[in-house]
Specification:
Layout (H helix, E strand, L loop, with lengths): L19 H7 L1 H22 L10 E3 L3 E4 L3 E4 L1 H10 L5 H17 L3 H6 L2 H15 L11 H16 L3 H5 L1 H11 L5 H13 L4 H6 L1 H10 L4 E5 L9 H5 L8 H7 L12 H5 L5 E5 L30
Antiparallel strand pairs: 1-2, 2-3, 4-5
């Protein structure tokens, strides 16, 4: 990591390149995310409708809550299994193994990697963000981001009382996946509701404030090994990353400088901040490779701005 300069560096802002190669570089992470999301859906769709197989067994059968890869590897949503535990119903050993495999994968990659790289609802909410920005829509009301943890607790409590996995019955994520893979129906009305809520009521309302599955993966993501590294010496605090980030409160520059990375489990590793950073101060790395910047006192360079400062609050 380069040594900090005695005087602040000139502040540059992100500018979209004019060349096709430059634009592709800016959108490289967004393109990769869409390819992963589409690939997951195509694998489910091809198995269900075209009979895709791998050495005999179905390639990827099931849904995002419970699936089986090549007829041998079980995969299960740990949050769904947690809800079943809350109902006090027995959970099959295969389901526990599947949940363990998925949990281990996202613990390494980052819990909310599911949210930005796999979840089909991410495409809907990203579209709502673009509509909201184009129309300069303001929030109708505010909800604390921590509300999603309360919704998570409520989902478990209702599961315990009702005896069913409560969120799985009403999840717009599950509905969208079923509609895409098995045929469109009334489930798309819930997807439309999420789009309208995010576009015209509350910025990042569903993913950033209410989704209990995102809350669950945020808790898992606190120990993730893949992180967004932060180089405090090169950062000029232009604030472009905050405007691009769907979870801007995770970009606390003071904390990032102390640890050399974005530590919050609420970070989705979407890399939107990396794509717009004009100084290349952000990059994806392993936790062990993050190099903290020493912070001595509040008056130091790291103390003059953070993600909570009004000057760096993202505009609609």
């Amino acid at each position: 990591m380069s040594a900090p300069a005695d005087t602040p560096r000139p502040v540059r802002h992100f500018e979209m390149p004019s060349s096709l190669a430059g634009k592709l570089r800016v959108y490289r992470f967004a393109i990769a995310r869409r390819l992963v999301q589409a690939s997951v859906l195509v694998l489910f769709f091809g198995t269900a409708h075209w009979g895709w197989k791998l050495l005999g067994p179905p390639l990827l059968a099931g849904n995002l809550s419970a699936a089986k890869l090549a007829g041998a590897v079980p995969l299960a949503d740990p949050f769904a299994i947690l809800q079943v535990f809350a109902t006090r119903h027995a959970v099959a050993g295969e389901a526990l193994l599947g949940a363990g495999l998925v949990l281990a994968a996202y613990f390494l990659l980052g819990g909310r990697v599911f949210c930005s790289w796999v979840c089909p609802m991410n495409v809907v909410t990203d579209a709502a963000r673009r509509v909201r920005a184009r129309l300069a829509v303001r929030d109708v009301f505010a909800i604390p981001p921590g509300a999603r943890y309360a919704v998570l607790g409520l989902a478990l409590a209702v599961s315990a009382v009702a005896g069913v996995a409560a969120f799985e019955w009403i999840s717009p994520i599950a509905m969208l996946h079923r509609e895409i893979v098995y045929g469109a129906g009334l489930g798309l009305t819930s997807v439309l509701g999420v789009f309208l809520f995010d576009a015209f009521v509350l910025r990042n309302g569903w993913c950033g404030h209410l989704c209990p599955l995102g809350a669950f993966w945020s808790l898992v993501g606190r120990g993730a090994q893949v992180r967004v590294a932060f180089d405090d010496a090169s950062c000029t605090r232009c604030g472009d990353c905050l405007k691009a980030c769907p979870e801007p409160r995770v970009l606390n520059f003071n904390e990032a400088a102390r640890h050399g990375m974005i530590r919050s489990g609420e970070c989705t590793n979407c890399a939107a901040c990396i794509a717009v950073c004009p100084e290349s101060s952000l990059r994806l790395t392993l936790r062990a490779s993050a190099r903290p910047y020493p912070v001595h006192e509040p008056g130091s360079r790291t103390g003059f701005a953070c993600a909570e400062s009004p000057a760096f609050r993202p505009k609609e």
